[in-house]
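Listing 4. Sequential folding, example run.
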Amino acid sequence: QVQLVESGGRLVQAGGSLRLSCAASGRAFSTYAMAWFRQAPGKERAVVAAVSWSTGRIYYTDSVKGRFTISRDNAKNMVYLQMNSLKPEDTGVYYCAANRFGTASTTTSQYEYWGQGTQVTVSS
C-alpha cells in the first residue's frame, strides 16, 4: 500500500517557476514507477511526466519538454516536478501517481495509487 501527498501548487505568473513535491509512504517505494498527471478544467487527466523505478526511463509529454523535470529521491520517498517557464496552459490540478510494476507508463489505468492533487494556476 502506498499513500501519496502532493504539495507546492499555487498561483504563479507566466514565465515563473514552481516545484511540486510528492511524499510517499510505504517500504516498497523504490520499486514503484512514479508520475505526475495534470487535469485542466473540462479536460481529462493526462500524464505530464513519468519516471521508472530505477530512473532508467523518463517520459515527458511534448508540451513540457525542456521546461519540466521529474526527479525522485528514493532515500526520502519523494518525487518532484520542477516546472520552469510556466504558461497559462499549464494550469490545472497536478496529481502524483504510483504503479507497482515499475514502468514509466503514460496512462491513468496503469497507476494504482493517487494523491489528492495540488492546484497550479498560471496567470497571463
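-- end of first protein; second protein begins --
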Amino acid sequence: QVQLVESGGGLVQAGGSLRLSCAASGRTFSSYAMGWFRQAPGKEREFVSAISWSGSNTYYADSVKGRFTISRANAKNTVYLQMNSLKPEDTAVYYCARSRGTYYGQVRSDYDVWGQGTQVTVSS
C-alpha cells in the first residue's frame, strides 16, 4: 500500500522560503501525477499545485503562482514544493496527494492517497 510522508514544514518570517518534500513508498510512483493541497484553520482544504507523472507539466493556484514551484524526482520517489516569498496567508497544513491516475487535477476527488500533512506557519 502506498504511503506518503511530508516533511520540511516549520515557522518562517514573511518573505522567507521553505521547501516541502513528500516521500512515497511503492514502486509505481512515476506512473502518477502528484499534487499539493493546504488547509488553514477553519477553512476547506484547497488546491495548491500539481505535477504530471513525468514532471513536464505543472499547474498552480493563482494565489501561489510565481512564488511556489513544484518538482519531482522519480528516481527518489519524491515530490517537492519550493515556497518563496511566503506570506502570512500561506499558513496552513500542507498535504501531499497522489492522483488517481495520470491527470493532475485541482480537486480533492482527483486524488486517492494522502499524506499526514506538515505545518507551515508564516509570521508577519
